[in-house]
TrEMBL record, chains A, B:
Low complexity bias spans: 190-203
Keywords: DNA-binding, Transcription, Transcription regulation
Protein name (record): TetR/AcrR family transcriptional regulator
Listed InterPro entries: Homeodomain-like_sf, HTH_TetR, MT1864/Rv1816-like_C, Tet_transcr_reg_TetR-rel_C_sf
SUPFAM superfamilies: Homeodomain-like (SSF46689), Tetracyclin repressor-like, C-terminal domain (SSF48498)
Tree of life domain: Bacteria
Annotated HTH tetR-type domain residues: 5-65
Organism, scientific name: Streptomyces polyasparticus
Record has Transcription as a keyword: yes
Pfam families with a match to the protein in the record: TetR_C_33, TetR_N
DNA-binding residue intervals: 28-47
Length: 209, 209
DNA sequence: GTAAGTTGCCTAAAACCTGTAGGCAAATGA
DNA sequence: TCATTTGCCTACAGGTTTTAGGCAACTTAC
């Protein structure tokens, strides 16, 4: 019988496309086998298991996002860079919701460390060079940007902004403006507490619900 | 034979607990049946199907989060309210990762409109009363806060901050500080573009990757 | 060109999850 | 007590995951 020409790369690519069409959750070894018109068991020579397949799709998505971001950042700095970076993030998620969901897959530490997620974080840090932040504040700012971009896009994709005005794109622009303003006027860190002093701001809510 | 005393409520509650133990993804009708030491088919008299079960867990989580937030907000305003609200959000997610994941389930519009998610959004808006924002900017600010809180917590839970200093709790505090500063110095909206003018800032990246 | 070795896809089968249909027994209530 | 409702059951059909082992199609070496 003719061979289908399966490879891990082709499976990953097809899996990514399938994810964008029907959602990352629906990407299954069976569905992929149907797509290649091949028996399910055949795929197990190319990917270890279902989780391996999903991980490969996640890594592909992270790679693509980092590539887009790198291209968008080239030659830009300051607010221009921040805006370009933010838009790449949102545009990618909207164009490729399945891959974007894949990129959110929790990777085991070694895989994550070897992924393009690291490049992404480095680029976020590079953007901050256009702002005047103390070294000790940079990680906080990186996490703020990462969290905000991811959170906003994630809420938008899940339909959270669908039924209220204004359109999500308008808020997005204003939010990037606001983050730019925030980075230019980053609040001073509070004085470090004396070593033996009680914590200055106890958690306000740590009870079990 | 003795009856197990199943009800939709008990199933939902047990499902929520199971989600916190093994992850929302792993909550299945079968697993729940095992928990009650009952045959799988028996559950289908109480919940319509697997999706119905998950939706009920999501609604429970949204309800609990809104209750916690309401309690934390009582008697507070300004930065105090912002901090309390933010901490409720993060603390709930850390204490109940499975329920938190459930709360992210995409609900159909009617279900979402009837859920406690609405209350949550109203509380966010209430917090903004402590700041001096133009009416037209409030929705943007609500979306910024929602996105940032959700995004940060989501990244933290998925382990994104595990392998870098400082601890996630430290950045969290600084980020809430920064958001407070931002809300107190919200940047002016740019002048509205003339009706027939070209868009002032074309998207920087809308190509297909 | 052909024999040997490798690779690729196959069949078969076990285990688990979802969901439907119909049945019997326990609870309820007149 | 008898009829009805309710709750959990058995049985079954269909789908996904994963392993084991087999044969045919490629590749390579002589």
């Amino acid at each position: 019988m003719a061979r289908a020409g399966l490879t891990p790369q082709r499976l990953t690519q097809a899996g990514a496309e399938l994810a964008d069409e029907v959602g990352f959750e629906q990407v299954t070894v069976s569905a992929l086998a149907r797509h290649f018109d091949v028996k399910v068991a055949s795929l197990y020579s190319h990917v270890k298991n279902s989780h391996d397949l999903k991980t490969r799709i996640a890594l592909l998505a992270l790679e693509e996002m980092a590539d887009c971001a790198a291209e968008a950042l080239a030659g830009r700095s300051g607010k221009d860079a921040l805006t370009a970076f933010a838009n790449v993030y949102r545009d990618y998620a909207r164009a490729h919701p399945g891959r974007y969901a894949a990129a959110q897959l929790r990777l085991d530490p070694e895989t994550a460390a070897a992924s393009a997620g690291v490049r992404h974080a480095q680029m976020t840090r590079a953007i901050l060079r256009g702002y005047d932040l103390a070294e000790s504040e940079q990680t906080h700012a990186v996490r703020l940007l990462g969290g905000t971009f991811h959170g906003y896009v994630s809420l938008e994709l899940s339909g959270g902004f669908d039924h209220s005005a204004p359109p999500a794109a308008v808020s997005w622009t204003r939010i990037v403006d606001a983050l730019d303003a925030l980075l230019r006027n980053w609040p001073a860190a509070p004085a470090a507490p004396a070593p033996s002093a009680a914590p200055s701001a106890p958690a306000q809510n740590d009870r079990e619900i």
